[in-house]
Amino acid sequence: MSMPFMDPEASGNDSVVTEFVLLGLTKTPALRPILFIIFLLAYVATVGGNFSILAAILAEPKLHTPMYFFLGNLSLLDVGCISVTVPAMLGHFMSNNRSILYRSCLSQLFFFHLLAGVDCFLLTVMAYDRYLAICQPLTYSTRMSWGIQRALAGMSCVFSFTNALTQTVAVSTLNFCGPNVINHFYCDLPQLFRLSCSSIQLNEQLLFVAAAFMGVAPLVLITVSYGHVAAAVLRIRSAEGRKKAFSTCGSHLTVVGIFYGTGVFSYMRLGSGEASDKDKGIGILNTVISPMLNPVIYSLRNPDVQGALRRVFTGRQPPT
């Protein structure tokens, strides 16, 4: 176990930690090459899968709609989210040095919350898009115009950037003067809160506000949107029409369930004294499994996406 690395100019109670040690997923050296291969394959599959979805959306005119505009942005976010954590973890698997500089830890924290926050808002916007398409079809093209799509995506980025910056600046005011070992494979708020030797009351309050604004409120909006969608779909007389509507909504609801499920469990344990393997498992679901599954979920029951993917991989031109 690494001893805390202190600022050489500091002394006594003013000593501060300038780097942390990430314990990672295992302490067994023999397992590291195996885990390296597994997570490398997961990373390649995630990047390849999400960029394939993005290429299909760009290449297929039929997919130039608001729903797929947001899905393309979601694919980019998934690539970004897994890139914040997994490449560094792969490096630690192949090295005995598991330290991460204090500023690098804060950078990882910032980008993780930035990308996850935009993800959260975009999932809400996608639910609103489905509500307009199914419940308000006559005004859909006006209320979800190209300008509104860009505005919604831009607002999602601005809100998430504000939250990520606020959380990161608040963490930077904490004192870390003792233990520097993080029992996880990336830096996040719960792990840093446990190591702080100063009060985290303000940080917890900020996180509570963020959870209400970026977690509870979007989830309520998604639930209300899909409540109206379900009622409208059940009124469709055609069985084929109901099936098509439920298939597109079902994919989105599955992604929402995974995203919010893992997020809730990650931050429910803020009050626990020590990190456990459960935290690491939830972290893998949140940062690796979810981004890897999203392309599969969105293309599995979507013939339009499947057809576009086939044309991307075979080089055939879309029908005119």
UniProtKB/TrEMBL annotation:
Membrane topology: Multi-pass membrane protein
GO cellular component entries: plasma membrane
Keywords attached to this entry: Cell membrane, G-protein coupled receptor, Glycoprotein, Membrane, Olfaction, Receptor, Sensory transduction, Transducer, Transmembrane, Transmembrane helix
Pfam families: 7tm_4
Secretion signal, residue range per the UniProt entry: none
PROSITE patterns per the UniProt record, alphabetical: G_PROTEIN_RECEP_F1_1 (PS00237), G_PROTEIN_RECEP_F1_2 (PS50262)
Tree of life domain: Eukaryota
Subcellular location, record wording: Cell membrane
InterPro entries: GPCR_Rhodpsn (IPR000276), GPCR_Rhodpsn_7TM (IPR017452), Olfact_rcpt (IPR000725)
Record flagged with keyword Nucleotide-binding: no
Predominant localisation class: membrane
Residues annotated as domain G-protein coupled receptors family 1 profile: 49-298
Presence of the UniProt keyword Transmembrane in the record: yes
Membrane-spanning segments: 34-58, 70-90, 110-128, 148-166, 206-234
One of the record's GO molecular function terms: G protein-coupled receptor activity
Function, in words: Putative odorant or sperm cell receptor.
Family the UniProt entry places it in: Belongs to the G-protein coupled receptor 1 family.
Descriptive protein name: Olfactory receptor
